Each structure stands twice: as C-alpha cells, then as structure tokens.
Amino acid sequence: MKFGLKFLPVKDMFYSVIPTVGTYLEYLNGADNALFKNLWVSLGVGLVVSLALAILFYRENVKTFKKSLAEILAVGYFNHFSGRLGKLVKSKVPVDFSFPDNSLKTFTTDKINVEIGIPKNFSSLCSYANAVERKAEIVYVREASQSEPFWLRANIDNDSLLIYEYPRTLFSLSKYLKDDFGDSEKAEKSSVEVYAYFKQKINQLRIAYANEIANDRLHFIDV
C-alpha cells in the first residue's frame, strides 16, 4: 500500500516514539560500556529503535484501516442482501417472482434456497460473478413488505428456486485502495488479506443474527 502520513498518527509519535529516544539515551549513557558513552552513538541507537517502532505503528495502522474497511462492506452487504434474503426465506408467506418471460411464479419459502459465494481473492470473485451471470436469470422479487420489487439472479431447480448471490460490494475496494488494486497482479495479492477480513465479519454476523435468518437455506460457500 502506498505510504500515507495518515497511517502514522502524531499521537503515536508524541506519546511512544519520541519519548523512546530520551529513554534510551538515559539508559545507554548510564551503561557501563564505552561505546555508549558517546552521545551521538547513544542518540543513533535511540533513533533506530524509535524508527523501528514507528514502522510497527504504521503497519498496524494500515492493517487496522483495511480490516475496518472490509468490516464496513461486510455489514452493509449482510444487511442489504444476505440478511434481507435470510429473513425473506424464513417467513411463512409465499413469495412471488417475476421472470424474464413476464411469467409470475410463486414459491413457498421452504422451496427457496440461496447460494452465497464468498471469494478468497479478486480472481475468484470475478470468476464466480461471470459464472452466475451465465447460468442464472434476472428475476424480480415481489415482496409484500416492499413498495418496489428488487432483482436477483436465480434458476428454477425442479420445484424449487435456487438464488445465486455474491458480494458485489467487494468490487468497490479499488476506489478506496487504489494503490493495492492498481492492476490485476496487485489486486490479486492485496485482495487475499482484505477478503479474509470480510469473510470473518460475515461469519460473525451469521452467528449474531442466527435467530433471524434461515441458516438452513442460506448456503455460504467458498469460491
């Protein structure tokens, strides 16, 4: 990730890094070692240690930023898609679906299953998205609690409906991590870490809202 001063907060420098120089100076000057009797040598050692701490702070702050970003996207995705669909298929009210041929089909919720592909990296996200677009149709859900229908991709499997989902929101990461997702090679490498945070948060939300969604018909798969 491209270096940015925002990941090296002044408070970390003031409270942790800068005092370290003074601490090491005081300690090393009092040591029974001729090498550290030289003020500049002592100062140099203190600065090296302080620089190491600054790098550590920086890396931890970058990691925290990426994790927070992934968790925000995960919460948004779960609330607007997985959570919404989970509550929909858990209800006992039959659901109407409008298909491309203008036909309207009704399914009881025990006949609705949702496959949610959670990618491990950028290429797997693209591959799964392309596969879903090839094999599934766009259908509109006419939910009684919503004034307007919303669309999703699904196929009829015998007498059941199989809905395909994946976190499209992950495509937006390139807007926030431009340097990490500047080209395909960088995106592939950087996505592994961020997607892992995303998956971890999704799993936490599944546990937290287990009593509100139909986990037996929401099938999260690794892709």
UniProtKB/TrEMBL annotation:
UniProt GO molecular function: nucleotide binding
Matching InterPro entries: Prok_STING
Protein's UniProt keywords contain Phosphoprotein: no
Pfam families in UniProt: prok_STING (PF20300)
Entry's Gene Ontology BP terms: defense response to virus
Residues annotated as domain Prokaryotic STING: 70-205
Transmembrane segments: 39-58
Keywords, in A-Z order: Antiviral defense, Membrane, Nucleotide-binding, Transmembrane, Transmembrane helix
Similarity comment: In the C-terminal section; belongs to the bacterial STING family.
Protein name: Prokaryotic STING domain-containing protein
Naturally occurring in which organism (per UniProt): Parapedobacter luteus
